Amino acid sequence: MRHVFRLSVVVLVVMTALSVAGWAVIRHSVDSQDQALLNTDAGQINLLFQTALQNAQTQLRSLAFFTESSGGSPQVFAQQAKPLLTSPATSVAVLDRSGGQVRVVEAAGRALHSDQPLPPPLVDAVLHAGVALTSGVVRVGGQSLLHLETVLSTDPTHVGLETSVVNPNRPAPNSSGPYSRVWVNVYNGSVANPAQLIVTTYGPRPLPRPVGVATTKFGAVTWLVEVSAKTAPSGGYAEASPWIALAVGLAVALALAGLVETLARRNRDAARLVEERTALYAEQRTVAETLQQALLPEVLPQLADAEVSVRYLPGVEGIHVGGDWYDLIALDDRHLLAVVGDVSGRGLRAASAMAALRYATRAYAVQGDAPTEILAKLSKTLSVETSGQFATVVLTLVDLDTRRITVVNGGHLPPLLLHDRQGEFIDGNVGLPVGVSPAASYNATTVAVPPGATFLAFTDGLVERRGESIDAGLGRLREAALADGRGTLDELLSHVVGTLVGSGSADDTVILGVRWRT
Amino acid sequence: MADLEPGTPLSVAVTDTSEGPVVAVQGDLDVSNADQLAAVLDPLLKQQPTRVVFDLTDLRFMDSSGIAVLLRAAAAVPVRVTRPSPIVRRVIEATGLTDALHVES
């Protein structure tokens, strides 16, 4: 009797130990997988905020630049401020901080007014603003205001400021969309300080654990993104499974069978969740693409003596877009600067570098710099040594009075000039790409334009193919461009793109055309 | 700036010679694998060799991400590029980098 009793104790102890071990294994598996999923969500949301901050910086600098260079024109300010005033909670202003005093140059929105002094809590932020975007949360008139500010690198006395009313007591609903299954709190700074809460779908209190975290860093801004599941991310069965395993621990075999079953289910759940995540990544690509397209000009300048047209095709493979960009800047009625460039690498980093280069090019062009000077200055704004990125850029100044084009090339593929059934690549004076040397200097190639000629600048997505020299691609381009001689410029670009770029091309592609009407 | 069609796999081999390390890069170097080359180069460059030679005899394709890795190395130490195929040589030339990367003629 005594002997049997001892055996059952041993069996009980062994079975209990095995069951507890099984419980611990499953429990750990559930927890670590939940944590990984939440961190993925936080990382994705983090990227959305980085994109938003990048946009805010570009827009605020444009706002400050154009307002300052127009001598504080209310019309120019209103035009530049319009895209920023997306909700009644948002206000924007351009401020002059020369002499340590802050003066409102122009303002729009409910919180900022051009005929009133800046609310005192914001004065300090404006005085301390740098070229890198900064942010903070302050109390003004009983409201919490998130503020973002940046100065012009060319004129640090002028500051672009955006404020947005934050109301943590009224959580923003997120009942639909990819993040509807999670609570999200975003704080200004690197810690979860309720006074610095910027965005919340949960309210001004700590999120239920477990919490996924990610940190958004952009310029001098640091935001903390916290994410928590509304229900257990991997579902109720997974939560309960450790206890089921314990209860069924009457026999070791049964307990193990339960463990196997649970793990199998978890694998199925994991496969389903991976599918959902893949859909989210596809969405993320759209964000980067939206950013890139948002940065490309919407309306091309209209000129009396020349037709202009552009095609931009985003690459389709992978989750990251490339860094191709173009711009057409009407310097006056008779002068146009055509810009085509390509930043190495892909994704948000390439899109960010592209945004900075595009903005800088526009600013230098508007202030009257010659194309050779613009490229030399761009070379000082990007460094392959520190960022691992460089850019090829070709700038073409179109002078409709003298009928000449002046091409300045920083390592970019040569533009093509078509006239009289001939095509000629303008391939002289190729200088260093932007980002290789801050001391780079450039020489211009000036070409006379025959009547009715067509100028084409493009990126390598149009002509580059694996296993062949780019000369073969350039030859194909010339052939395709000459084959379609009678239609409009728009039709020519469609024909060239249709002939050279297969459907589902991996690389992004830009082609820009200018055609002289006479 | 890159063509993402599947290419030949990348392989990187480093040989130490009396004139410094020779880095032989084979296959297709593009945005999908440029980090692999960078991972080999980073510790190498930390040792501050007097020169790094890139042997590109068997490099079939190089995009801007690959060029960026070579440029970063060239910013850290003197480099020389030897025996590029005509296709790769033309890419470097079109990008205006024949001198900056000291491409052997």
Describe the model:
The complex is a heterodimer of chains A (518) and B (105). With 518 residues, chain A is of the alpha+beta class. Chain A folds into 2 domains: 11-286, no CATH class; 296-516, PPM-type phosphatase domain (Phosphatase 2c, domain 1, 4-Layer Sandwich), CATH 3.60.40.10. Chain A contains 10 helices and 20 strands. Chain A has helices spanning 2-69, 74-81, 120-128, 236-247, 252-295, 347-366, 371-378, 384-387, 470-483, 489-500; strands at residues 90-96, 103-108, 134-140, 143-151, 158-166, 182-188, 197-200, 211-218, 221-229, 306-313, 322-332, 335-346, 391-399, 404-410, 416-419, 422-425, 430-431, 444-448, 454-458, 509-516. In chain A, α9 packs across α10. Chain A starts with a helix and ends with a strand. Chain B has 105 residues and is an alpha/beta fold. Chain B has a single domain, classed as 2-Layer Sandwich (Transcription Regulator spoIIAA), CATH 3.30.750. In chain B, a hairpin with a 2-residue loop joins β1 (11-17) and β2. In chain B, α1 runs parallel beside α2 (64-76). The termini of chain B are far apart. The chains are: A alpha+beta (518), B alpha/beta (105). The A-B interface holds A 315, 317-318, 322-324, 342-346, 384-385, 388-390, 392, 409-411, 413-414, 430-433, 435-437, 459-461, 464-471, 506-507 and B 1-5, 7, 28, 31, 38, 60-61, 63-65, 67-69, 71-72, 75-76, 86-87, 90-91, 94-97, 100.
Q: Could you list some keywords that capture this structure?
A:
heterodimer; A: 518 residues; alpha+beta; Phosphatase 2c, domain 1; 2 domains; 6-stranded mixed beta sheet; 5-stranded antiparallel beta sheet; 10 helices; 38% helix; 27% strand; B: 105 residues; alpha/beta; Transcription Regulator spoIIAA; 5-stranded mixed beta sheet; 3 helices; globular; disordered N terminus
